[in-house]
Structures are given as structure tokens and as C-alpha cells.
């Protein structure tokens, strides 16, 4: 029997570890149940940190961890899924194409930044969505020191006032000063179509964020969007023109395109609707998890967000349940009642909230200490030691905050 997992992000990694854990508990051998993880590289990109400088350092190797738990790594990009033949089509690094059959499939393909067809966005916009995108932005910021001193050079526009946009914007004054030196006069502007900054963070958290933006000198333009970009600036939907060399697009994400090949129902973000065991209803032998799935967290109407906090736990349940079906043991319904947010606010510290109502628990330096611990310890892969790696993937304990 073979369980195939597509994706080496947080959900894919924990799906592989959790499936291997259940296989170990039930005394099955890798020959009896092969677990294969398909990804272009055996590397976890620490995506929640890509707003930080030096993004090329923000990865973690997975090969030794996978080997320690007898998970087969298949290098290549999954291009097709045939749910009738139960095959995944893979493009290998050498340019060849091959097929991998499965008895159960876990789709953990993550999400991609949504880039609308705005004039100039593709040519002149930056982002922190992928490792390559973040590296391109970092190099651009480093190169700005060679430009003549001007308002255009020192101005950054961030399109999107959600979680990613706020973290990118509040980090930017320090990054510009590091890149440009004492001559820097950073001006950072967040453009948000909603009437309020951080529209999803709630009434209690929003004043804290507003104070932090003021403290670090970030301006906002609310109720407007980006109409067009060119090499020297951006024009907003209300006609305002801002001269800038740097526009960072952070306005929404969608499930990765491969999910469209699964003949299941999807939501407005392209996520596959799944049942409580994370199966795709009506599609035999297929599970979806992480940003590829719309899953209920509880019985109160809360659904998993497109975040690594939800992806890690969802991945653990999906891997466990896919393996459970093959091993003939009961599945474990996914649930995730605990929910926290920890928003980096640059030199103003951070904001830590708990619960779906986003009750503020920590702010400033205290929250920043927690954010650093999350970013540098909690979200990284476990040690490449068999017992520790398997123990880390207990579905009931992953991200138990």
C-alpha cells in the first residue's frame, strides 16, 4: 500500500510525520505501508517569516527528518492528479515526467498570493509570498543604496492591510535604514480597500495595531485600492499618485492551482471542502489539508484559516487518517478549538491575542518575545531523531496552545 502526500510545507510535513507515527504504533513496516512525500525540494520554507531580512536563511532541511521516520522523498513538482486512475503526474528536476500511484492521497499543496490583473503589477510589484519573491525584494532593498537620494527611493507602498501587509510594513523602516544607512528617510504607506486596518483582527486588537503603526511611522490609505503601477510609482483608485520604487503586494491568497484538478466542491479561496476527517467528499481515497482545505475547527461554526498554525495540526490529522484507513483502524476527526494570533509590529513590539474573538493578552516587548520564540523555535521541524520526530506529530498535541 502507498500513501502519497503532495507538498512539503507545514501541512505536508506533519501529514508525513503523523502517518509514520501511526504506522509505527500499529507495528506496520515501511514495506507494508509506503509513505511518499512529493515536493520540488526536501526543504520547509518558513513562510511566516518571509517579511524579515535575509530570507535565504529562512528554510529548514527535511531530508534527514523524513529518513529518520522512513518516509520516502520523491523529488519533483506534482503537475497532475488523476483521481480515477489514482495517479499523480510528477515533473522531475531533469525534465522527465513520471507517474506515482497511490492508495490514499493527501493534498497539501498550500496557497499562492492572489495577483489580480492590475496594470503594472506583474512588472513592478514585489511580494513576500514565496522564498524567491522574498529574496527578490530583499535584493531590491539592498540595491536602493545605489539610487540617488529621493522620496521615491525611500518610500514603500504595501498593498493590503491584513496580517502579512502589517508585518511587512512595520518591519520596513528598520530594513530601509539597514539598507540605506543614515541618509534614509523611510516613508511607509499601507493601502487597504476596507475602511479599517486589520479588518479581520477585531475591535480589541485594532487600536493596538493603529498605535503601533503610528509609533513606527507607517501611514495608511483606507477605503481605496491600487489602480496601477509603473516604474516610478503607484496610482490609487481615488486618483492619488505616490512616487515609490517599491510596491509590496500583500492583498489575499488562494489555494494552489493543483487543487482545481480534484473533482470536489471548493470555496471562494479555491480550498477543497472536506469532512471532519479531512476527506474530500465524493472523491475516493483523497484527503486535503492545510491551505488546500476548508475544514471546520469545531461545532461553533469556526473554520481553519490559511495559516501555519492551522496547517500543522490539520496536516497531522490528515496524515493520521489517511494511514488509518489503509491500516484498518479508526480515524480521528479534526478539531482545533485553541486559536491564537501573534502579529509582529516591528520596532513597536508585537500583539498576541487568544480565541476567535481575538482577546488581547500581550502587547509590546512581552508579545515580541513570544513572537520570536514562535518564529525561531515552535514552527521549525522536529529533530531528525526517530522517537522525537514521531512524538511531535501526535494530532492531539500539535500546536496545542
From TrEMBL:
Give the matching InterPro entries: FAD/NAD-bd_sf, FAD/NAD-binding_dom, NDH-2
List the keywords (alphabetical).
FAD, Flavoprotein, NAD, Oxidoreductase
The protein, known as: Dehydrogenase
| Similarity comment | Belongs to the NADH dehydrogenase family.
What's the domain of life for this entry?
A: Bacteria
GO molecular function ontology, one term from the record: NADH dehydrogenase activity
**In what residue span(s) does the FAD/NAD(P)-binding domain sit?**
2-315
Residues in coiled coil: none
Amino acid at each position: 500500500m502507498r500513501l502519497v502526500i503532495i507538498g512539503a510545507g507545514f501541512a505536508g510535513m506533519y501529514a508525513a510525520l503523523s502517518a509514520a507515527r501511526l504506522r509505527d504504533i500499529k507495528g506496520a513496516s515501511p514495506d507494508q505501508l509506503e509513505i511518499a512525500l512529493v515536493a520540488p525540494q526536501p526543504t520547509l520554507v518558513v513562510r511566516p517569516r518571509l517579511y524579515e531580512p535575509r530570507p535565504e536563511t529562512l528554510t529548514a532541511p527535511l531530508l534527514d527528518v523524513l529518513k529518520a521516520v522512513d518516509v520516502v522523498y520523491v523529488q519533483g513538482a506534482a503537475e497532475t492528479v488523476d483521481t480515477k486512475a489514482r495517479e499523480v503526474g510528477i515533473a522531475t528536476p531533469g525534465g522527465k515526467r513520471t507517474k506515482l500511484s497511490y492508495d490514499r492521497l493527501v493534498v497539501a499543496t498550500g496557497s499562492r498570493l492572489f495577483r489580480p490583473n492590475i496594470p503594472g503589477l506583474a512588472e513592478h510589484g514585489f511580494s513576500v509570498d514565496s522564498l524567491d519573491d522574498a529574496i527578490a525584494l530583499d535584493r531590491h532593498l539592498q540595491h536602493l543604496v545605489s539610487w540617488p537620494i529621493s522620496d521615491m527611493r525611500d518610500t514603500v507602498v504595501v498593498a493590503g492591510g491584513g496580517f502579512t501587509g502589517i508585518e511587512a510594513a512595520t518591519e520596513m523602516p528598520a530594513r530601509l535604514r539597514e539598507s540605506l544607512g543614515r541618509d534614509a528617510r523611510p516613508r511607509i504607506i499601507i493601502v487597504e480597500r476596507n475602511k479599517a486596518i486589520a479588518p479581520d483582527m477585531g475591535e480589541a486588537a485594532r487600536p493596538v495595531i493603529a498605535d503601533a503603526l503610528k509609533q513606527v511611522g507607517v501611514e495608511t490609505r483606507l477605503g481605496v485600492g491600487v489602480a496601477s503601477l509603473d516604474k516610478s510609482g503607484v496610482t490609487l483608485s481615488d486618483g492619488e499618485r505616490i512616487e515609490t520604487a517599491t510596491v509590496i503586494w500583500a492583498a489575499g491568497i488562494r489555494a494552489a492551482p493543483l487543487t482545481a484538478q480534484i473533482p470536489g466542491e471548493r470555496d471562494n479561496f479555491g480550498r477543497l471542502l472536506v469532512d471532519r476527517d479531512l476527506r474530500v467528499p465524493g472523491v475516493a481515497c483523497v484527503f486535503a489539508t492545510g491551505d488546500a482545505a476548508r475544514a471546520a475547527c469545531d461545532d461553533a461554526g469556526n473554520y481553519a484559516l490559511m495559516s501555519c498554525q492551522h496547517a500543522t495540526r490539520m496536516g497531522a490529522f490528515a496524515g493520521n487518517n489517511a494511514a488509518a484507513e489503509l491500516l484498518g483502524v479508526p480515524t480521528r476527526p479534526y478539531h482545533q478549538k485553541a486559536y491564537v494570533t501573534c502579529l509582529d509590529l516591528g520596532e513597536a513590539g508585537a500583539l498576541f491575542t487568544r480565541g476567535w474573538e481575538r482577546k488581547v493578552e500581550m502587547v509590546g516587548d512581552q508579545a515580541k518575545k513570544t513572537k520570536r520564540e514562535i518564529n525561531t523555535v515552535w514552527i521549525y521541524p522536529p529533530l531528525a531523531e526517530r522517537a522525537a520526530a514521531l512524538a511531535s506529530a501526535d494530532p492531539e498535541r500539535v500546536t496545542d496552545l
